[in-house]
Amino acid sequence: MAEAAQDRRGSLPAEEGAGRHRRVIERHSIDWVPLSERHGRVSSLGAIWFVGSLNLTGFATGVVTLSMGASLMWTVVATVLGSLFGTFFMAFHSAQGPQLGLPQLVQSRPQFGYIGAAVTVWVFALVNYIGYNTSDALLSGDAMNTLFSIPNWLGYVASAAIATAIALFGYDWIHAVNKWLTWPFAVIMAVISGAVLFAGELPAGVWDPGPFDLTSFMLVFIFVAGFQLGWAPYVSDYSRYLRPDIPVRRTFWWTYLPSAISGIWVFVLGAVVSAAAPAGTTPVAALKLAADRLAAGFGVIAIAALLVGLLSIMAINQYGGSLTMISIVDSFRPVTPTRTIRVVTIGVMLVTVGSIANFVGVEHFNWFYANVVVILTYLFIPWTAINLVDYFFVRKGQYVVREIFNPHGIYGRWGWRGNLAYLFGLAAMMPFMVIAGLYTGPIAAALDGVDYSLFVGLPVAGGLYLLFARGLDLATERRMVQEEGLLAPRH
Fold first, then answer.
1. Strands 439-440 and 434-435
2. CA dist 8 → 14, 117, 300, 339 (Å)
3. What is the pLDDT of residues 188-238, one digit of tens each?
4. How far is Cα 218 from Cα 319, in angstroms, rounded to an integer?
5. Where are the alpha helices (H) located in 236-338, listed in sequence order?
6. Which helix (H) or strand (E) holds 435?
7. Which of 291, 285, 258, 286 has its CA nearest to residue 271?
8. Are 267 and 65 within 8 A, CB to CB?
9. What does the alpha-carbon distance between residue 35 and residue 20 come to, in Å, rounded to a whole number?
10. How far is CA 93 from CA 86, 97, 387, 474, in A?
């Protein structure tokens, strides 16, 4: 079988992969991408993750951080540190894509089991997509209302229609759109930043650090780190077509630096704009106000530019949400990956997100978004630790691809190691959690509301999984990997 697999899907010459980059409707979904279809340059990840944060949602993230109680200076410091920390884990997930050629969440089956992954990790991932896309819907509707004076719901429908077209075409189009947007966005962001810093009419003394408050500092740190960590459940979806001989370090850095830099840039910009805006101003209105101070009418240009960036990320969220729904269904009833099922699942996402956004309303955006990001952060901290420990320290990138799609295979239906480590990790975090206005854990309350849950969940979940994994028969699994011959040798 190994020889047949190599003949059918063996490694390509260096020049062949790039020639297969055709912008047609993608036919793959949750299935493995054969080596004969791998293409693209690792530098393309830079465009995806640089543009990924340069949009209204990224800007609104910065606006929300300033409402958490810290001064502008300490908010900026916490933002920089939180972004650098959260992006570190997200970038290592990105490095899994070229090696395995699989969507991110399918890679959770070896840790959580065929059914276990579907009812735990994938459900949380679907909530992740719905939560972020609802936030995107609220902002896109508000932006379209500001630009064209149309109802918010109609603005969302128009925005979602454009994003849907990109999502339906899939992987190559998502990469292409973000590549086209990179340099125009860098220029427009520089101009907006200049407007905010030099014509923004910031209050006197706004940059005075003031007293350091660890409680509010950690709220910002967790929130920003969580935003960056929120990419983790689907980051390798956009690297899975790359050739497997690309070193992990290159995939890591082409993800880490663009995402961290653009994230810090837009988060800080949002915080500074919020400092100059009247209390209660929506993120879209605050941006328009700040940009118009540079030149009359520039606010419309700024909103339009970040709205275009938002359409790109809405496409990514719709695409990822579609893959997640297909993965969940496939765990209970085998699904043949087709374009039709992607159309159906994207349609389900549109209706669900639109309904929730209409219920929440843009006036409650800050409250909704802040709690969504924090809760999702808590849910994915144990998962990211388990998934990365398994990939880099336990199995070291060697998985039997056909067994990942076998409900009765070696990875089992319920992976007790992953699920137990996850539950213990989440339980260990709960006393340290702080969800503003909803829940404060007893240990966090004793520590004056300081949230240390991130630093508890990562080592507990990852350490326990590493301990539980000592009983795995890795020698047999590696023989099966070699016999299958679908993965490139580790380098």
1. antiparallel
2. 17, 30, 53, 24
3. 889 888 888 776 677 777 788 889 999 999 999 999 999 998 888 888 888
4. 32
5. 248-276, 283-292, 298-332
6. strand 434-435
7. 286
8. yes
9. 11
10. 12, 8, 8, 22
User: What distance in Å separates the CA atoms of residue 357 and residue 289, rounded to the nearest whole number?
Assistant: 24
338-344 long-range contacts (CB < 8 A, ≥24 apart) are 338/27, 338/29, 339/25, 339/27, 339/168, 341/29, 342/29, 342/168, 342/170, 343/168
What confidence category does residue 328 fall into, taking pLDDT thresholds of 50, 70 and 90?
confident
- Decide: 289 and 300 in contact? Cβ < 8 Å: no
Is 28 a member of any domain? Answer: no
What is the H or E stretch that residue 377 is in? Answer: helix 365-389
76 is a domain residue: yes
Residue 482 in tokens: 């070699």
CATH number at residue 391: 1.10.4160.10
Question: 104: which 2 tokens?
Answer: 């991110």
Task: Name the maximum alpha-carbon separation found in the chain.
Answer: 72
- Give the count of domains, the chain: 1
Would you say the C-alpha torsion 398, 99, 314, 75 has a positive or negative sign? positive
79 and 268 in contact (C-beta within 8 Å)?
yes
The encoded tokens of residue 181 equal: 């947007």
Phi, psi of 211 (to 5 degrees): -70, 145
Tell me the per-residue pLDDT of 424-450, one tens digit each, with 9 for 90 and over: 999 999 999 998 778 899 999 999 999
Backbone angles phi, psi at 439, to 5 degrees: -160, 135
Distances (CA, A) of 320 to 1, 162, 167, 175, 268: 32, 16, 9, 14, 27
The domain of 290 spans 2-11+45-484
DSSP for 353-373 reads HHHHHHHH-GGGHHHHHHHHH
Q: What are the angstrom distances between the C-alpha of 366 and each of 68, 284, 310, 363? A: 11, 12, 17, 8
- 38 is a domain residue: no
- Say how far apart CA 422 and CA 416 lie, in whole Å: 10
Among 394, 407, 400, 383, residue whose Cα is nearest residue 330:
407
If pLDDT is split at 50, 70 and 90, which confidence band does 479 have?
very high
Asked whether residue 37 is assigned to any structural domain, the reply reads no
Terminal alpha carbon distance of the chain: 23
Rounded Cα distance, 153 and 145, in Å: 9
Residue among 346, 411, 422 at smallest CA distance from 29: 346
Query: What CA–CA distances, in Å, run from 350 to 158, 305, 324, 345?
Result: 11, 23, 14, 9
Question: What's the Cα-to-Cα distance from 20 to each of 14, 216, 247, rounded to whole Å?
Answer: 12, 50, 21
Distance CA 26, CA 162 (A): 17
CB 377 within 8 A of CB 226: yes
Side-chain half-sphere CA neighbours of 386 within 13 A: 34
